[in-house]
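To: structure desk
From: M.T.
Subject: fold request, one chain
Message: Could you run this one when you get a chance? Sequence is below, nothing fancy, just the single chain.
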Amino acid sequence: MSKELEQVSILGGQKLYWGEFLIKSLLAGCALISIITTVVIITILAKESFSFFDHVPFTDFILGTSWIPLFEPSSYGVLPLLWGTLTITFGAALIAIPIGLATAIFLSEYASPKMRSIVKPLLELLAGIPTVVYGYFALTFVTPVLKTIFPEIQVFNALSGSIVVGIMVLPMIATLSDNALRAVPDSLRQSAYALGATSYEVSTKIVVPAGLSGVIASFLLAISRAIGETMAVTLAAGATPNMSLTFLESIQTMTAYIVQVSMGDTPAGGIAYQTLFAVAALLFVITLILNIISQWVLKRYQETYDA
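Reply: Done. Structure tokens follow.
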């Protein structure tokens, strides 16, 4: 036993040393900091949001179809921002979910160890690129390419934003789904092969259903990530709050509006300033619900196998 670990007490027959005590205290402090931070954020959002709803009825906010909070006459219907957020999220999901799942199946079932050691780090590298870089990538490359296909597309548009957000969340889906599929016991695969199943049948009818809880959880977490994306959609999709049915026009998401208000042009304390917290609170609730659903899916449909 090292000399620096001095015994300070005995609890339940177990020796407690200074080193262990300090480590436990440090870990508990880190956990406490995260809890306090969350509580402070929720408190501030709730306080400012309640002040906002003292002036604007909640039904007008959540059901209104016109969002003009910074000019007169003002209108505080958040549906255009919510629609823009859902448009970007839907487009990103259409891109990221099939490609991410296909990539995960390839990495877990077909890729050689050498190929996996090359592809997976390159894929995860996408997650390390700053989001503002994705935004400029959308403006300088994605949108010009799209303009050759759709000449009527606007400079800021939902399609470009959906593409770059889909690329951003792709590593999350691929990595988490790959982990879920690799957790499926090899005995299931071998049993299927013994019954004459092909590799495709094993992958799609045995492995994917067996790891479905982790796969669906990765989808929901990626959607949560897409909903909360800020800089990429701010630069790519624009700042026009509307409920357009086409991806070729400029829209505004909830996060893009938060960036707009946070730039300092809106005086603090006014109702226009409080819209920042009302929108942020709505965004927080949506993200929280999706995370709760993903955890429920993971626990509800998680498969347990005997060793």
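Reply (cont.): The longest strand covers residues 7-11. Let me know if you need anything else for the meeting.
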